[in-house]
Amino acid sequence: MLNNWLKIAFINYKKNWLSTLINLFGLTIGLTGFMLILMHWNDEESYEKWNPKKDQIYAFQSYFKPDNTYGNNISIPVVRRAKEVVPEVEDYVLFNGSGIGLKMTTKNKTVYQKEGMTATESFFNFFPFKLVAGSYKNALKGEGVIVLSTTAAKNLFGKTNVAGESVKFNNKNYVVTAVYELPNENSQIKPDFIINPVEQIKNDEKNWGNFNYGCFFMLKKGTDPIVIQQKLMKDIFEYRAKIDGKESGLNVQQYLDLYGPTDSLLTPLDKIKLHAKASWFGNGDFQTMMILFILSVLIVVLSAINFINLKTAQASQRAKEIGVRKAIGSTKFSLVLQFLLETFMICIASYLLSLALAELLLPSFNKFYDKEIKMNDWHIYFYSFAMVILVTLISGLIPALYLSNFKAIETLKGNFARSKHGVWLRNGILTLQLIISSFFIIGGLIVNSQVKYMMNKDLGYSGKQVMMILFNEETPKPWLKYERLKTEMKKIQGVADVSYGEAVPGSGRYSSSNMDYKDKSIQGQHGSMDYNYLQFMNVKLKQGRWLNPNLASDTINNALVNEAFVRKFGWKDNDAVGKKIRPGFDTKDYNIVGVIKDFNIWNPKSAVDPIIFFHYKETEWKRFNVYNIQVKIKPDDIEGTVKRIKNYWQTNVESGYPFDYYFIDQKFAKTFEKYQKQQILFTILNAMVLIVALLGLFALSSLMIEQKLRDVAIRKTLGASDKTLIFGLTKQFLWITLIAVLLSFPLSYYLMNEWLKDFAYRIDMPVWPYILSLFSLLFLTFAVVSIKAYQATKVNLIKYLKYE
Q1: Which residues are listed as membrane-spanning (predicted)?
Q2: How many other CB atoms sit within 10 Å of the CB of residue 543?
């Protein structure tokens, strides 16, 4: 029996070779896309899975209800009180620096070691890296100790067994207490050296409002993190509000609304890469991942739709076969199994081809996403094979049931070809396919428009030819270094101007605090700067005046604010000038002397935050945070000027350190990369969908028109023109396309509007993508179907009329 089924299957594959190839092609493309996106998702979800304590470790995030925002920072008193009053909290680790670079000296050499991190002494209780030398006990306790990775140990000493050795940096000697080996598995936390910021913690340990640290909590096994979040709110944030609120005359709720946090969120360690609302180590993009996954599934669905359509369209060719088999005793169940086997054979062939194609495309996919994914995870094979079984059942079972329900007497008489049930099924499934195709066209055009809008939007500043040079971490009095360099670097040939600013577009640095005015408080960024910085960046003044170096008050307590700052307080621009605010970073009032137009620091997806700009000498501690010098280069010899600046820097400024610089406009342009990749992927998926849909339409129209060749021959004999015949054959498909596109409009509008909601700067929903989708699909449908319709008009009349 099985042998007989296989023979019948191969006969039908050969007879309908075009539809067989289209089914193979569509399913192969769909399954390949599904596999690649699944591998990408699986890779993103695999971060921190290596950690044996991952089920107990949670990343802390704060929530601020008035702004509906999340933060990834915490203060030391909050953490310590949590350990004291919440019994489910076993331990915590704090960190406030990652990606640090330091020039380190050993007995034999000096090395600039990158990728360092500061963390408190319980770090290795949370991240039990493989110990190579030394001991983790007290490894980070107190000052003067450092722990190295095997990579750093080899860099500094040429070997890994270096516990007890000495290394010098920041004019201090440090003892290596342990050497560890970093995990090969995916992890965001892979420091090459770790030191404990003991002195900084001492300075911050009594400051409730100094949210300078990231934190992981270790909870007791079986603890519900929701319960801990509630306890953090009640026993810590409300406790702080009672203490600080009394002094300012505010009740608990008023204090929390003004200064927050109003809630917290604990995210499991192995979920922070993709699911954390805010993360110290960078956020993933789960929404985009879901969109890509759904789109890849839709392509597989389209392929399955092609299969169903083509199988049902071939019904008339197999009607007599089914009638004969039923007449000789075949059951409905055996017929269903036979048709499922035929479908499975196509699906399994597509699966094998898709495995080969995915392996072939994987290097390019890895390069696109900067990953090192390998096809060695059984989950990929399991889920993709499960998709094959699902496609087999969906695309095989519907035609199988449909065909097995033929009545033997009617099929043997040859009357089945005119069954209305078959027509309605094919037309309904074709409509669904065209709805999906229309959505892809509309979505692709809107994504392209949004990305172009962001890239062409006026950002409110000009970073062209502005070179950002970072200071090393060891500079003891960085503001004095900046002031000396400012004078000297202006003399370098090709340098047009020099300045400093804390809030730099594309830098990723962020420092903020509360800004108070009477009974209202907002959260605002800090923008310490040199007097000329805003003019240096071509930012526009909207109201008031610039800071002036000739006015003593401008180095004491005068400041400028941006439009977002003014809006947040509900003022008008002219009302803001002259107002005195109390920023959380200082103990004195600041007088607003000017309002500048907003300029974008993060990326065009994000709204511009409120920012206060002031001279770096106005706040005593801010001068110690001067971390860069910015140089505007004349356009006539940029390459030569960069070489002269580099030579000067490495000879006279930071010998032995890497020359760490970038151009601001190029750095900011990198914030677009994620959206440009979305645009490219959507375009590729769009092309795949259209190809699969149009090939399916061509095959379906071919089969359906072939069934009407006798009608065409009769009408042509009666005098119908080729033009009339072509239009008559394509009219049905054009009506289906029109209905499908119109049905896709509300779905496309809703989904794309939801996508656009995530962008602070977004296009208005355009009409032209919907119109273009309608006309392009009508044109493509007509073009595809009319090819076969034109061939039908050249039918051999004698062949189809000789028995009439």
Answers
A1: 21-41, 289-310, 335-358, 378-403, 424-447, 680-700, 733-752, 767-790
A2: 20
